[in-house]
Write a structure and sequence with these properties.
The structure holds 2 protein chains of 2 kinds.
Chain A (H helix, E strand, L loop, with lengths): L2 H31 L9 H10 L3 H8 L4 H10 L7 H14 L6 H14 L4 H7 L1 H22 L4 H29 L12 H10 L3 H8 L5 H9 L8 H15 L6 H14 L3 H7 L1 H24 L6
Chain B lengths: L21 H9 L2 H18 L3 E3 L6 E3 L3 E8 L1 H25 L4 H4 L5 H5 L21 E10 L2 E8 L6 H14 L1 H5 L9 H11 L10 E4 L8 H11 L2 E3 L4 E4 L2 E6 L2 E5 L1 E4 L22 H6 L4 E3 L10 H4 L2 H9 L6 E2 L3 E2 L3 H9 L4 E5 L9 E2 L5 H13 L4 E5 L5 E6 L2 E10 L1 E4 L3 E3 L4 E5 L13 E8 L3
Parallel strand pairs in B: 3-23, 5-13, 6-7, 6-11, 11-12
Antiparallel strand pairs in B: 1-2, 4-5, 4-20, 8-9, 9-10, 14-17, 15-16, 15-17, 18-19, 19-22, 20-21, 22-23
Helix pairs in contact in B: 3-12
Classes of the chains: A mainly alpha, B alpha+beta.
Chain lengths: 316, 472
């Protein structure tokens, strides 16, 4: 398939996944801010949503304080922020529009309808919509799009690039959410496993749809290292880093020609570390360091995918 | 032609419907108006959901718009269509022969049938194409012939579009829509299908591939998603099952054109291009163009790739050449034209120029090289000041203008706010050339929606209608 098509489709699914993850993070911040034990400063709940995002510096420069309305404006409505929910959905739809011959008409219609519903979204409309209802809607549109994709798309190269986009983005997001939340939730000086607020860990799990999964897998009280294990290493949980990289590794198989591409090696290497990794080792060497390293390697893999498939093919 | 009463296509001489329209008239009589309005709403929602839109220039940022769709079809009888079909095929065959001739032996110029300067000094003439032999000698593989009607048997060609005519996606999508909205009405009439257009287009494109390519790769080259007709490019690529490419996806190497794919370079044989000549190759034409492919012209000249339509085809659809098309038909085919031209005045001729300046309030004046309804003067509708301003433009460069009488364009019943009312229409059938020259029985009908308006261009508030060609 055309290199440019591969790139458009890959970004289409990355953007829709990014919109979903933004909605998840914001939903948690909002829920926490409503807790009875709410802290006096609302920025405590909303600052993490900025930290998790791709460009905290841009927020600081333009908005200053992480108040609820500032954070919502930046992460949901801001047309100039390429990672706002608005911009992500617009970009996903634009990429889909460029590839209408490659995707099923149901996929296009699902994305186009999503875009039309928010094309004139502003603070007043968001308020009328209701925050919880809006976040749920974004998540459900993303679920719908993924379901429609699996249910209607031809399972050709285009489909594989769409899948890879989803899992590269999701791995990045899960790692960021865990990294930032872990910092916020763990009071300074306290060892992992100390007494932390049940609600807050519960909210973290909910933000990645892992609350019930945690209960089913561990059947124990919520403990930080088990949360980390679930989100990093547990292969059967679809938002874990291991599950995402397994999917990328597996999907690259049919795409890579017989010659060995660097992106295939990078994906296999990263996946192996997750497949055979142990949570004790990760904590011993530092969770934050591990996650930072993961995000860096995941980005390098993404860059390499781009150069191996998407900007390639100029014959000398 | 003297001003005549407006011909309504549905209404017969005695006031009742003409035979082809009888079923529609009966259906209209028994269908409540609010149902029609509801159907129009459904159609609009459908078009929006499917993303059938075009981009409009001139509002600062390009805005995504929908062309208004009128739910009432326009109907052509089998006999009427036979005339249109025969006339279009004849015209396009002759124009392709004309193009081959002026890029080779120029017999028609030597015979004095067309002034040499009009052809050779024309901006659309491409000296680079002189002597280049094209597969099947086809220059305009896809032609859109704009036709207007003033009476039961009076069809006139207003313009030949031989470069990158658009609108065919509306012919196909409008049909899908009317069949969905009014299945009973549709089923009750024998409407000839148009759905084979993409297949036939692909077949013709494959037929003009470079020699020795048994399974040629065809691509559709688009300027990109901000182009006004992008939806149509997507639609046609999808319907034909060919790659939709942009200039950056193609490159030239060793006298061949390749596309960049995730599996490496793949050779391209036929390019259905929807980019104007000027932007096709930055090495040969506009060096600023980022839409084209560097070196493409050299591959075309050596026969390594076929472009549809060919570079330089525009010289034959120029408004100045237009007035010679009847002569062109006679010269190459030895036949009388089936479809007449609208009489035109070329302002390069001093007599014509004097006449036009004296009758500005009766005439339509256009730029010879313009298109899309921009920059024209509709004399009877213009204010005195507008006519004066236009007169100054003409005096500055008379040769840049041509004029035609204002035609009493035919009308068709159209759904408007307060009911069904006649509105002026034109007709653009699409003529395909490759293996043979042919048309699918259908066309893109444009309708001027404001009451009394004669401007059907979508960029100027025109809408579209489905066009039903009836079987024998």
């Amino acid at each position: 398939m055309l290199s440019r098509s591969a790139e458009n489709l890959y970004w289409m699914s990355r953007y829709i996944e990014r919109a979903e993850n933004a909605a998840r993070v914001l939903d948690v911040s909002y829920r926490m801010s409503l807790m009875p034990s709410a802290a006096p400063k609302e920025s405590l709940y909303w600052q993490p949503a900025i930290e998790i995002g791709n460009d905290p510096a841009a927020f600081g420069a333009q908005y200053g304080e992480a108040s609820q309305s500032n954070v919502l404006h930046f992460t949901v409505l801001d047309r100039a922020n390429p990672s706002s929910v608005y911009s992500c959905i617009r970009a996903a739809r634009e990429n889909a529009r460029a590839e209408r011959t490659r995707i099923s008409s149901e996929m296009w219609e699902a994305l186009n309808e999503t875009w039309l519903a928010i094309a004139d979204l502003d603070a007043a409309r968001l308020d009328t919509w209701g925050l919880r209802a809006f976040f749920d809607w974004v998540k459900s549109r993303s679920h719908l799009f993924r379901g429609v994709t699996v249910g209607t798309a031809l399972q050709d190269d285009a489909f594989h690039f769409i899948r890879i986009g989803t899992f590269i983005e999701r791995a990045d997001s899960t790692a960021r959410i865990l990294d930032v939340k872990y910092h916020v939730l763990l009071p300074s000086g306290e060892e992992a496993g100390g007494s932390v607020d049940y609600y807050q860990w519960g909210a973290l799990l909910r933000s990645v749809s892992a609350f019930r999964a945690y209960r089913n897998v561990y059947r124990r009280e919520i403990a930080p290292w088990r949360v980390a294990e679930l989100l990093i290493l547990y292969p059967a949980f679809p938002r874990s880093l291991a599950a995402c990289l397994a999917e990328v590794d597996r999907t690259l198989g049919p795409l890579a020609p017989s010659e060995r591409l660097e992106c295939v090696r990078l994906a296999g290497d990263l996946y192996a570390d997750l497949r055979y990794g142990k949570i004790d080792d990760i904590f011993r060497d530092g969770l934050h360091e591990f996650l930072e390293d993961f995000i860096r390697r995941n980005n390098r893999l993404a860059d390499r995918l781009q150069s191996d498939f998407m900007m390639s093919a100029v014959v000398e | 032609m003297s001003p005549s009463p407006v011909f309504d296509e549905m209404t017969g001489p005695a006031g009742g419907p003409r035979p082809a329209w009888a079923a529609l008239q009966a259906w209209l009589d028994s269908t409540p108006l609010d149902l029609l309005h509801r159907k129009r709403g459904e159609a609009e929602a459908l078009f929006r959901r499917l993303g059938i839109t075009f981009y409009l220039y001139g509002d600062g940022a390009a805005a995504e718009r929908m062309i208004p769709f009128d739910v009432l079809p326009r109907i052509l009888s089998a006999e009427e269509w036979a005339t249109v079909e025969r006339g279009c095929i004849q015209r396009v065959q002759a124009l392709n022969m004309f193009l081959h001739d002026i890029y080779h032996d120029r017999e028609i110029l030597r015979a004095g049938k067309v002034p040499a300067d009009l052809a050779i000094d024309n901006d659309a003439y491409r000296p680079e194409m002189a002597g280049v032999d094209l597969p099947g000698r086809v220059y305009s593989h896809i032609a859109g012939i704009d036709i207007v009607r003033t009476g039961p048997d009076d069809f006139f060609v207003l313009e030949d579009n031989l470069r990158t005519p658009s609108g065919v996606s509306y012919m196909l999508e409008n049909r899908e829509t009317t069949m969905r909205l009014f299945p009973d009405l549709f089923a009750g009439m024998s409407v000839r299908p148009v759905g084979s257009y993409p297949d036939r287009l692909l077949q013709n494109l494959r037929a003009v591939a470079p020699a020795g390519r048994p399974d040629p790769a065809v691509v559709l080259l688009t300027p990109g998603r901000l182009n006004a007709a992008y939806f149509e490019h997507v639609f046609l690529a999808e319907q034909m099952g060919v790659e939709l490419v942009e200039g950056q996806d193609l490159f030239v190497d060793g006298g061949r054109v390749f596309m960049r794919t995730t599996g490496g370079p793949e050779r391209v044989d036929v390019i259905y291009r929807r980019i104007d000549d000027d932007f096709l190759d930055p090495l040969a034409f506009d060096p600023e163009s980022v839409l084209g492919v560097a070196g493409l012209l050299s591959v075309v000249r050596s026969g390594g790739v076929t472009l549809a339509n060919a570079i330089g085809a525009g010289v034959a659809d120029d408004k100045a050449i237009y007035s010679f098309v009847p002569e062109i038909v006679r010269f190459y085919l030895g036949e009388e034209p089936v479809l007449a031209n609208v009489p035109s005045y070329l302002l390069r001729n001093p007599d014509d120029c004097r006449y036009v300046l004296e009758h500005l309030d009766e005439l339509v004046v256009k730029e010879v090289h313009g298109s899309g309804g921009y920059g024209m003067l509709i004399g009877p509708k213009a204010s005195r000041a507008e006519r004066e301003a236009y007169r100054q433009r003409i005096l500055a460069d008379p040769a840049a203008f041509m004029a035609q009488p204002t035609l009493a364009l035919s009308t068709c019943p159209t759904l408007v706010e307060d009911g069904v009312a006649p509105r002026h229409v034109d007709l653009r059938p699409f003529v395909l050339s490759g293996e043979t020259t042919s048309l699918v029985p259908g066309a893109f009908t444009r309708v001027a929606l404001p009451e009394g308006s004669l401007v059907v261009n979508s960029s100027q508030g025109g809408g579209t209608k489905d066009t039903w060609v009836l079987g024998e």
